[in-house]
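As a warm-up, study this chain.
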Amino acid sequence: MDRRAFLGAMAAGATALKATAATTERPFGETGVPLQGSEPLPLGPLPGGRYPDPHVESLKKAKGAFGQTGFPGFAGTMAVERLATGMRWAEGPVYFPAGRYLLFSDIPNNRIMRYCEDDGHLSVFRQPSMNSNGNTIDREGRLITCEHGGRRVTRTELDGSITVIADKYNGKKLNSPNDVAVASDGSIWFTDPIYGIGGNYEGIKEQPEQEKHNVYRVDPKSGDIKVVVDDFVEPNGITFSPDEKKLYVIDTGFTDGPDNPSHIRVFDVDVGAGKVSNSKVFAEMPKPSITDGMRADTDGNIW
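Now compare it with the structure written out below.
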């Protein structure tokens, strides 16, 4: 073979290798579900809205009063309104008071949406979002996000750049971080079930590498990741009480089998030490119902 023919054969081989690699490497932010447009539905009050709105349920307090202390509305004075539509699956809302906007995940559509409170405008904040799920805000006003597709927890810095907070534990990939809460000391606590790697609808189907489905804590100074609870079937929503003496975590293990739990657990928590104790069931959900995300209000009520 002469030199010209040899170089031609080498170039062809390199092209073939490059094409093979292209077929095996997943594009950044790839989603398992193709994107589709959707016609928006009318916004504003839901059809048939009236006062009191039958969509709203409220518990009676002692002496017959309605509503919770400090809560500005109750069954007779508020109604359910549809602010936005067109998502496949909306989850993980977080409000940014400085900008008067709400961010939330549209998981299968692989995007984070933004609803502006001042003019009711809905737009795409980020796409691809790595099939983002739970979101929250830290004490510096930065977005903290759990990503199914990336199998990681990220922070969006004030300049828009993205920092990876956690994507591995003991050298192995996380399962699919689901929900997250940030304590006043800056520590980041998150849950890691396997929902986002179970199929190609809300993530990418892959094999789990973590033996257990844990609740983790990221140290605010060192960035070290440690397990704080390891006996959940499928840990899901997570939140602190206002005084940070209690940690609430949802177990949606019922999705994996009828004998698994569907409840909210509560722990005594030492935020600084990163330790929990005295696990108890806070609320049982009547099966086949499950809870998912949750937050605590300033009075300590769990929503």
